[in-house]
């Protein structure tokens, strides 16, 4: 044993370029999922980034996205690939652009699920709260402007 706990095999809540129809969905998720369903992340706000969004924790708001369950046999490889894509290097690492955290999301039918969510890391989140452009309604697919 290495002493390092393996992460729980949770589905992923995706809210930006990994959503169905977006370019990173085609690159990373197409053909590798068992289920994809609409969901919402409570107590978070969405900010526009350089071609992709950032979710930041904030009570009383929500982010629109999809709950994605990896297909059998895809979880570990997909977890590693998404960690690299999101520039997540591990818990509390200073170079993280996003932190991968377990959160409760709401399905369209009102039920809840635990899922991995990539939230803007602390320094990124603080800068976004000061100078970022919030996406109205928390939905990347309905953001204003080109897309």
UniProtKB/TrEMBL annotation:
Record organism: Streptomyces antimicrobicus
InterPro entries per UniProt: AIG2-like_dom, GGCT-like, GGCT-like_sf
Domain Gamma-glutamylcyclotransferase AIG2-like: 12-141
Pfam families: GGACT
Lineage, opening ranks: Bacteria, Bacillati, Actinomycetota, Actinomycetes, Kitasatosporales
Descriptive protein name: Gamma-glutamylcyclotransferase
Gene3D superfamilies in the cross-refs: Gamma-glutamyl cyclotransferase-like
């Amino acid at each position: 044993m290495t002493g390092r706990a393996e992460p729980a095999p949770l589905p992923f809540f995706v809210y930006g370029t990994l959503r169905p129809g977006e370019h990173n969905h085609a690159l990373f998720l197409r053909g590798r999922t068992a289920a994809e369903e609409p969901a919402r992340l409570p107590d978070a706000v969405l900010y526009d980034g350089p071609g992709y969004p950032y979710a930041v924790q904030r009570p009383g708001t929500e982010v629109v996205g999809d709950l994605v369950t990896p297909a059998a046999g895809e979880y570990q490889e997909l977890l590693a690939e998404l960690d690299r894509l999101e520039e997540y290097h591990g818990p509390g690492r200073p170079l993280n652009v996003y932190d991968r955290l377990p959160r409760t999301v709401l399905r369209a039918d009102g039920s809840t699920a635990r899922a991995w969510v990539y939230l803007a890391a602390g320094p990124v989140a603080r800068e976004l709260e000061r100078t970022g452009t919030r996406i109205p309604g928390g939905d990347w697919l309905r953001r204003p402007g080109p897309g």
